[in-house]
Design a protein that fits this description.
The chain has 371 residues and is of the alpha/beta class. The chain has 9 helices and 19 strands.
Length: 371
């Protein structure tokens, strides 16, 4: 595409999905104009954009923050796009890219200064499609070149999953750091993964690729696509609804030193307080949605102290995690061809409402495709 003509020639009409939603709880489709030569960076055309639980919560009004002085925000933070116009060295027209989601605090803290806004300690960061910045559920968008991450062409079928995979990379890196306190580095440990959505599946795949034993627990029946994927990776799959007071639930928590909660189980701290294993490390990745649970803080802290336990949360990721996710997705897809892709459902953009209306989802991830 040549955008060297008049200013009118450079103006593009782009389809977008914005919040706040209409009365049905579905985002609105609007048309926005985009200047191909916008100084903010290369022009990207969206290939695919993922719909995740955070998007659903933003549409429902329980998460998210609109840009200042704006009455709407473009959704979306999981994206695969193709460069259609660039004057930036190193960013070539036709190149596949994804984009780092978080912008650092404008008065950067030490973490932001070292390139880790995902660990920002000031709290004034912004996130595309989540907090004060327009996201990627738009046909065209711009981003600074230093936020764009090149994606190999051979990963076009999984590129939209790089952002959620980057969260998993960060979580597993942190979990390994927790293990260092025990002087352990071998992959023979047995990890419990709670939840078989895309985060849970990617966690399972990456752990199994590294040689770890994994048990996955999720309410979905054993015949589900997610269950099939988990067992294809060599994990043990248990169809079970974790509930307080259930003996099987308590036994699972007691039997695993490493736990990754990718489902947002609100009462998990209560279980850790009563049944958590010695030296256990529990990573929380999923946000509880509509769940409430009372926790005896004294019992939880007492158990954590007496049993040398660690409980921590992980959110967002940095460029280094995006780059690590690309490599792991390539390796996992080579080891188990097509397994991750089989759990995704692609929906043409003009049918976007299907991705937001409550229904029984067949797969672990729904993806909007810009035709």
């Amino acid at each position: 595409m040549d955008y060297a003509g008049t200013s009118e020639d450079r103006i593009i009409r782009a389809r977008c999905l914005v919040v706040p939603p209409d009365s049905t709880g579905v985002p609105r489709e609007v048309i926005r104009t985009v200047d191909a030569n916008d100084p903010r960076g290369p022009l990207i055309r969206t290939v695919e954009v993922g719909v995740c639980g955070t998007d659903i919560q933003i549409v429902a009004g329980t998460e998210g923050q609109l840009p200042a002085s704006a009455d709407e925000m473009v959704l979306g933070h999981e994206v695969l796009g193709r460069v259609v116009h660039s004057s930036t060295p190193g960013i070539e027209t036709g190149q596949l890219v994804t984009c780092v989601v978080r912008d650092p605090d404008p008065v950067p803290c030490g973490q932001c200064r070292r390139g880790r806004p995902d660990l920002c300690s000031n709290g004034s960061w912004k996130e595309r499609g989540i907090r004060e910045l327009d996201g990627f559920m738009a046909e065209y968008w711009h981003a600074p070149a230093d936020k764009l991450v090149p994606v190999p062409e051979e990963l076009i079928h999984l590129g939209v999953l790089i952002e959620p995979a980057s969260i998993v990379v960060k979580a597993l890196d942190t979990l390994r750091t927790m293990d260092e306190r025990l002087g352990m580095s071998d992959p023979s440990g047995h990890t419990l993964v709670i939840g078989c959505g895309i985060i849970g599946l990617l966690t399972t795949a990456f752990l199994r690729f590294a040689g770890h034993k994994v048990t996955v627990v999720d309410p979905a029946p054993p015949g589900s696509l997610a269950a099939h994927a988990a067992t294809s990776f060599g994990a043990e799959y248990q169809s079970h609804q974790l509930v307080p007071g259930d003996m099987m639930t308590e036994q699972m928590i007691a039997a695993h030193r490493s736990i990754i909660d990718a489902a947002g189980v609100a009462f998990l701290p209560r279980l850790l307080a009563t049944h958590g294993a010695e030296n256990a490390s529990c990573c929380i990745v999923g946000l509880p949605s509509g769940q409430h649970a009372e926790v005896d803080g004294g019992a939880l802290l007492g158990t954590m102290v007496k049993r040398n336990q660690v409980l921590f949360g992980v959110v967002n990721s940095s460029r280094v995690h995006f780059e690590g996710a690309i490599e792991l997705l390539r390796e996992v897809d080579a080891a188990w061809p097509g397994v991750i892709g089989s759990t995704t459902t692609r929906i043409p953009f003009h049918r976007f409402r299907e991705a937001f209306l409550p229904h029984a989802r067949a797969g672990a991830k729904e993806i909007l495709v810009f035709e």
